Amino acid sequence: xxxxxxxxxxxxxxxxxxxxxxxxxxxxxxxxxxxxxxxxxxxxxxxxxxxxxxxxxxxxxxxxxxxxxxxxxxxxxxxxxxxxxxxxxxxxxxxxxxxxxxxxxxxxxxxxxxxxxxxxxxxxxxxxxxxxxxxxxxxxxxxxxxxxxxxxxxxxxxxxxxxxxxxxxxxxxxxxxxxxxxxxxxxxxxxxxxxxxxxxxxxxxxxxxxxxxxxxxxxxxxxxxxxxxxxxxxxxxxxxxxxxxxxxxxxxxxxxxxxxxxxxxxxxxxxxxxxx
Length: 276
What we know:
This protein is about 45% helix and about 20% strand. By secondary structure, the protein is of the alpha/beta class. The two termini are about 30 Å apart. About 45% of the residues are buried.
């Protein structure tokens, strides 16, 4: 992965003093000194469907206490903290954006989950872990910026133990192209690498995984973004929202997400695969 690509990705997601801006947003809404993961959900569930979808994914993959999870591209750690809170999992978040890792560590300390959730600044295509280190691999709206998806799923296959599984909730290319930009994962096409769902389904199987469940959730994502757009139109952005992460053009990104879903330019899939 080139330095130019890494710099561009960090320019898109990264932000100076992100942890401080998150703290200020929490103070603005009167968040308690020790918030719960539910309190952080408007900010740290960085994907369509919000908290509900994270819980839905967890129900699909069925984690149990003390299982180890690698959350690849896990950002500031919202889903990781849910897995730790609800299931007692030990979760390692890996993300290429350093400011996300820093903010995620701060939020995890704030909710008193640092014993279960840790962060590593690293590359999904070269995961800094030994073979067969984890019981579960998890990706949630985090693969759209990755071109070499064969290598990504090869790395997940390497680090997940035999008998383990992977859970994904991802945006894929729809029937119509091109995608309208900006969107939350890219302000222009050069950082966006979507593939059709059928191609992704085959690619993951070819990486050595066995399909357990594959569910298209495009319609529910559309309904969720319709509700989001309605709330934005009526009352504007909440002080605690994803614009804190991505900046003032997040409103345009969200509207483009709705348009892309309506026009079938993107699709949304939830799936679980087993690692034989």
